[in-house]
User: Fold this.
Amino acid sequence: MNESPFLRDFENNFDGIYFDNSATTQKLKSVVTAIVGYYSNGVAAYGRGEGPLNVRTRELFDNSKQTIADFFGVKRRQVIITKSATEASNLAFFNYRKILKEEDKVWISAYEHNSVYFPAKRLQQEIGVELERIAIAGDGRLNLEWVRQNISDPKLRLVCAGSVSNVLGIENDLDEFSRILSDENRKRDMDNHIYSHVDNVGNMLGERMNFSQYDFGSMMVASHKMYGPSVGCLLVAEELLDSGWFGPEIVGGGIAKWESFGFEDSIDFPLDDLITKDKEGQFMAGVPDTAGVIGMATACEYLRENEEEHYRYLDDLCEYLIDKLRGLDQIEILGGVERKRHNVVSFLTKDRDSARLEKIARILSENGVDTRWGRHCADVLYEFLDVEYALRLSLAAYNTRQEVDRVVEIIGAALA
Ligand SMILES: Cc1ncc(COP(=O)(O)O)c(C=O)c1O
Assistant:
């Protein structure tokens, strides 16, 4: 199969080759149609009024949020809409900060994107927690042997892990990671519970993640990496939502309690008395991006309907890309060539000459190819691998074998 069976689902009104899908993907026609449809037929500010357009907006928003919740196997209240996965991560850390103390330890994985690493770094800087890195094992995945040996550390209170590295494309064994965590937490009381935060952004075009199957506290996702608009979500475990300390970072209009304070002056009331107790409503300060949520739900529906075929197509295409790159003996693929991976492959030249790599990226660009050269917001990983820069090729379902042939041909000529 040379042509992509998914091409028809995208507009793609450009001549070039887009191999920067780990940064963001092109949008589905159905997503664009849904967003335009919402904006063209009368809008209102969610949750503010009772007129017909208010009702329409509320129904569309709530139904779309339900579709997103179903996609990730959670209840609607467990989905907190944010503008990006980065904002979702910051919300999670805003809350974990409340239960962490100076003497505590926080794990981040060597895979970590800066959207997790930097908020964790802030905990280190502002509270003084110790940050420790979970290393990568010989198979390119998180070193679970090390995790098993060290999880009983009494100081450990928060662990972070990514499902798929946005540089290596290699998937971690989160099933086993979650099991190890649950076994350890069963031995601990709530005062010593180990909380967990998962970055699923590297896996948005991979197998669907059913959050409820895991024992994780929170997970961040991004719609713009799965053919949708720029919306993110934080998925939160129900126990955490109901814990009493997990709450909104952003407060303001739209989350006030629906009750009158009589003639008392609310200026002296605690904030908790002024905002709604409803856990879903609490995270809705400010008018939400209804069009974005509708678009994300449309992308979820598409991926759900095409799940098997989509996943298989991308898997095959990525294998094809690796096979082709194997023929270029001057490059080294990060993570090795023998590993099964998602839609991402990163490489450097064997002489590790960054200027040469930058030149290849420039030549690709001059030939109409979008790729990404640099450190891919994954500084922890680059330091761990002792690599300065790499060139990343990341695929989506509208890409084709012919495009792979062309890109590898350009790289080959640039290396010569
Ligand atoms: C693995 C990973 N995590 C998190 C993010 C941040 O996502 P967003 O751009 O939606 O904030 C990215 C974006 O590149 C990513 O690749």
